[in-house]
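Quiz preparation item.
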């Protein structure tokens, strides 16, 4: 039971569903309790808007490597609550490696140190190889914010672009086994699906989005295979950067034509005055036209251009130029017919 002026602390509040969060709301609204919720997720997505609007959000940043080194040194020398009575020797570069691996989390750093201490009871000397053996991590020195982080994701990206599923799986494994955030990886895979595969295999994007949902739903390590499936799909999919090139062309034209008027025939005409001004006049309702046309491709509408949809100054500009890869080959044939009509 909640009593007035109580402090209600909810750890991992993102695990509360909407109904559970709503149950707390009236007590917060009336000021009966002071709610403190802790979460590792973005509260904008995981906490109900009504509850979030009545709270202040404080972002707690991870500890720096210097902070972690201080904590590790204290643990090694503290004889009452630490490992001081064991008289262990640890090289400074080993402590730095632990601090890097912990990525701002003191509990992780202390757990690694304690496991290593238990394994070093014979010679009392903790080495980097011992830590890697204890943690079963060969990628201990992977820096999630430094060069190795960006070099490794670059290696994954280029392996997929080069259609090498084995290399793609290897670099994926290197990141996951080093503790990389799986959501960071899957965001890059989703981008790749549109940037380097695109309409050559539209299913690629769906596979990657499904992998992202799997990461949220089951978490690691179960979601490792969903990520691996996405990587193999992308590596073996036909490649096309036609969408990337098309949007770059669009961006350039938008900068120069952002004030060009929308063609009258495709403007919205919700009022009589707008209709009198010619808004929507001459517009072809595509469905009516398509009823009388035969399409050569059952997956595409009839290859006929019904009217001009671009501003007058750029009506002949072409942005999307499909390749002959995968599904884009049929799109290319259809689009060539449409543009000739």
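Solution:
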């Amino acid at each position: 039971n909640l009593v007035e002026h109580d402090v209600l602390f909810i750890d991992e509040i993102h695990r509360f569903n909407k109904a559970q969060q709503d149950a707390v709301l009236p007590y917060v609204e009336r000021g009966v309790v002071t709610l403190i919720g802790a979460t590792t997720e973005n509260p904008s997505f995981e906490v109900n808007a009504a509850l979030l609007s009545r709270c202040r959000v404080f972002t707690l940043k991870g500890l720096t490597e210097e902070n972690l080194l201080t904590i590790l040194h204290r643990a090694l020398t503290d004889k009452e609550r630490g490992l001081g009575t064991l008289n262990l020797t640890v090289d400074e570069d080993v402590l730095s490696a632990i601090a890097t691996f912990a990525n701002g989390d003191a509990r992780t750093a202390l757990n690694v140190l304690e496991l290593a201490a238990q394994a070093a009871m014979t010679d009392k000397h903790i080495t980097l190889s011992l830590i890697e053996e204890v943690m079963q991590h060969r990628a201990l020195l992977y820096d999630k914010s430094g060069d190795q982080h960006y070099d490794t994701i670059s290696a994954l990206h280029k392996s997929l672009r080069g259609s090498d599923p084995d290399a793609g799986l290897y670099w994926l494994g290197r990141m996951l086994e080093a503790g990389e955030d799986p959501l960071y990886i899957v965001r890059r895979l989703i981008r790749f699906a549109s940037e380097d595969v695109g309409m050559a295999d539209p299913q690629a994007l769906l596979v990657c989005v499904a992998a992202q949902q799997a990461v949220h739903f089951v978490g690691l390590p179960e979601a490792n295979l969903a990520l691996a499936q996405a990587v193999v799909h992308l590596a073996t999919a036909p490649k096309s950067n036609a969408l990337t090139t098309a949007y770059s062309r669009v961006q350039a034209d938008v900068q120069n034509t952002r004030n060009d008027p929308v063609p009258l025939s495709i403007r919205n005409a919700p009022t009589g005055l707008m209709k009198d001004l010619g808004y929507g006049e001459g517009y072809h309702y595509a469905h009516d036209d398509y009823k009388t046309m035969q399409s050569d491709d059952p997956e595409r509408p009839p290859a006929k251009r019904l009217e001009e949809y671009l501003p007058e100054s750029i009506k002949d500009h072409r942005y999307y130029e499909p390749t002959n890869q995968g599904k884009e080959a049929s799109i290319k044939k259809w689009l060539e017919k449409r543009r000739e009509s």
